[in-house]
Amino acid sequence: MTHPYIPNAEPGVRAEMLAAIGAARVEDFYADIPPELRLDRPLDLPEPFVAEHDLVRHMRSLLGRDTGTEEALSFLGHGCYPHHVPAVCDEVNSRGEFLTAYAGEPYEDHGRFQALFEYVSMMGELLEMDVVNVPTYDGFQAAGTALRMACRHTGRAKVLVSGAVAADKLSKLRDFLAPDIEIVAAPVGPGGEMGEVVLDDTFAAIYLETPNVYGVVETRGRELAELAHAHGALLVVSADPISLGVLAPPAAYGADIACGDIQSLGVHQNHGGGQAGYIATHDDEPLVAQFPSRLFGIAPTTVPGEYGFGDVFYERTSFALREEGKEWVGTAAALWGITAGVYLALMGPQGMREVGETILARTRYAMDALAGAGLRVLHDGAVHFREFAVEVDDAAALLDRLRAQGIYGGVPLDDRTILVCVTERHSIADIDRLAAAVASARRADDEGGRR
Amino acid sequence: MSGHAAEPFAKLPVGPKPPLRRFHQARWDEPIIFEQSRPGQRGIAVPGPGAPAVELPDSVRRAAPPALPEMSQLHVLRHYVRLSQESLGVDLNVDVGQGTCTMKYSPKVNDSFARAVAELHPLQHPDTLQGVLEIYWRLERMLAEISGMARVSLQPGSGSAAIYANIAMIRAYHAARGEEHRDQVITTMFSHPSNAACAKTAGYEVITLMPDADGYPDIKALRAAVGPRTAALLITNPEDTGIFNPRIAEFVELVHQAGGLACYDQANANGILGITRARDAGFDLCHFNLHKTFSTPHACGGPAAGACGVSEALAEFLPGPVVAEQDGRFSLVTPPRSIGKIRPFLGVTPNVVRAYAWIMTLGAEGLRQVAETAALNNNYLMHKVLQIPGASAPWDRRRIEQVRYSWQELSEETGVHSEEIGVRAADFGVHYWTSHHPYLVPEPFTLEPTESYSKEDLDEYAAILAHVASEARTDPELVKGAPYNSPIHKIDPTPLDDPRQWAPTWRAYVRKHLA
Lengths: 451, 515
Description:
Chain B: Residues 175-294 form the Aminotransferase class V domain. By secondary structure, chain A is of the alpha/beta class. Chain A has helices spanning 11-21, 52-63, 87-93, 96-99, 110-127, 139-154, 167-177, 221-230, 285-288, 318-321, 334-372, 395-404, 428-450, and strands at residues 73-74, 131-132, 158-162, 182-186, 205-210, 234-239, 257-261, 277-281, 296-300, 307-311, 376-377, 387-391, 407-408, 411-414, 417-421.
């Protein structure tokens, strides 16, 4: 049978093409592969579902075993967030012209260049910075690259990293930086913000996250920027862009490099597969030279009034320089950038402010509700955005009880700490339901304890 | 009324079609989105808080709203649909012109499976994720069988990220054996630039082998390069020239004898599926690009997805977690000496699901048909292209799945360069890419037809090239003046490299050029 995806496997056309080439068999094309390297048996793979209907049935039977965050009431975050995705984001994201395009030239992919230029431009407005890259893989990579950029820029090989960073992210930073860059962890203060900071002239950067892994909004950015600059170091701030309608952008308090993940901007959770990283700086040539990633910019054409686009400062990249480039650049996450651009255009300044205000208010409401249900809320005095941590007797036991009621109650940070995530998707009734379920689980535990 | 008074209408039957398609891409003169903003308009409403507002200290409150565009929903949608029409994906064109990138059909049904994981969270309890974890587990095993490797990780976010993960594992492996003095990585000039750049990022000195007179990586140069400082060989086979190195096992053996590891970049695996495997040539590590060989869409440059395959000896270093199975239940475990995280969570799940579905609809026989047809299509296209006067392919060797061609002869004769031919080809509705730097092959172009395209598609593509080549002879200025049928005209790239003029965002453009 000729497979629907392989037109020229049809025997007639195959023979016709072989005849045109003057080859006896397809086997002739593999003459360079020596017999001892040939696989002399068929691959040991499952029987295929060639008919689309059979494939659909198979895939549904597998995927039907998952219970997603729309079937449960989910308070899971910790780097992957359940924000509302406007339908227009999905519509644009699934357009075949974008979905199946790749690395075309400005003449046949003009729209892709413009859409990505507009994405970085809208991010630039949100961040108040003039240079933003075409997305890198994810916020982890963006943080690692931002710190490497700071080290290359300053010629130093030591960075101070906030202790309020997710363990997985720290693991990535260790792998990516540790071979030649020393990572010094800054303590977390009692309020959940970055604690006491000691710096000297050997540091390339202070790395701060806001909101940090506990959902705490850092308030001492200006002070840390001044401290870093006094020692010839840079302030690198990872900020979630969805917070920036209400929270000050890192540049406003003196950050030199901003970075983070854009999954919150119109990209579904995708089981963690919707991440994409941004890096931004001011338009400062030496720092711009440290970007490994692609930068798109406007260029004129022969026709007045026409915008052309192209790669800015392409000779920085490993495409041009191989090992002499700055890190590497390859296929990363461009379509999520286009999608995030659609999101920002839909939201506008007003929508971004409102979604920020809603998340702030509901986060505080949820903190109060869970405190009311008897949980100890960590860093209660700090401003929180979207996430907060609670301390419980047994995180796994509580989460199991909640799950039995169709609630994914949060992400366990350790045996006794749960990180709870609240977005604009969680109604007040949803939060009340969580609080009631927590209170009831605690009562059940108490009763169990008395027996 | 259509038609000009002086031009009579054509008669029935109206066929046959003209020899070349009369293509014209959509041209919308679409303003930059900021130019369409109308203060007070909005594209979507947001739920109100329903709870008391939070007072923010001045130090963290945003002082002024971001200058984002303000537009109604239809106008945002229309803007982006117009931009999409000004882009040329696989769904629209005979996309054989982006050699080394394996442009192929991304089945629509697989997109529907990807949508089914849209609202899964990666940190749900594994009991609620058994379906997606099983897909990971099955795909890991299928890729292990396809490569011959012992274990696979699907965490990397792309091919280049997988190359980097492999280098990180190589570094961890040598460190675990107390062999940190191994500080050199050997690669070849026709490997993707990421091989060299990833090795450099990981702290290695990079040694690059040049091709020998036959187009193979130079084995004498390899012999001279290997030694006690060798950490690894990173090599693609077939290379981006389409040439398979028949002495590849000997290359691996030389590196092993020196105590190094051998790592196979399988970006070009599409033509050898089921025919030869990385492990069978002795490799310790390999990677696949799921968006190339396994058909997940390229998405304007990602989201991509990569897979690392390793031998038993390297399995303990894999990025974690990986999926484990016991009694039909799937869970996550982190290998004992894992290099840690390469990216958040488990990787790019929508693409993992798509790649799994693609293999499940083809099976062993189907994958072999993919490879054989890719090789057939490539050799057929080569046969057609080499009939075009002025086109050549250096090194008279068999090719597997792509060919790096040269227009040197045509260029010398006409003064028209490969890049200009590519721009003119766009006027006929196809994409064409020159090649990676450095241009070891002069005036290069690299075509990779894959299995997705029909004989008629390949004939059409070759006819376009032949037509443009003949234009270069008869009217070189016509070719140099292209494009004519694109959304825009010829670009002056100089501002892009001038720090005083470049504008990587709209705000930079406004500040530098409109203020």
